[in-house]
Amino acid sequence: MEWKAMHITIIGAGVAGLTCAAEFVARGANVRILERGSKIGDKACSWWAGGMLAPWCEGESAEPAVVKLGQRAIDWWKNHTDTVISSGTLVLALGRDVSELKTFANKTENYEHVNAEHIAALEPDLADHFHKGLFFKDEAFLNPRKAIIQLSQELERLGVEFVFNSEVKINHVKGTDLVVDCRGLEARDILKTLRGVKGEMLLIHSNDVKINRSIRLLHPRIPLYLVPRGDGLYMVGATMIENEERERISARSVFELLGSTFALHPGFSEAEIVEIGVDARPAFPDNTPRVYWKDQVLCVNGLYRHGFLLSPSMAQMAANVVFEGSHIPESIDEYLR
Ligand SMILES: Cc1cc2nc3c(=O)[nH]c(=O)nc-3n(C[C@H](O)[C@H](O)[C@H](O)COP(=O)(O)OP(=O)(O)OC[C@H]3O[C@@H](n4cnc5c(N)ncnc54)[C@H](O)[C@@H]3O)c2cc1C
Question: How far apart are CA 255 and CA 162, in angstroms?
Answer without folding.
Answer: 40
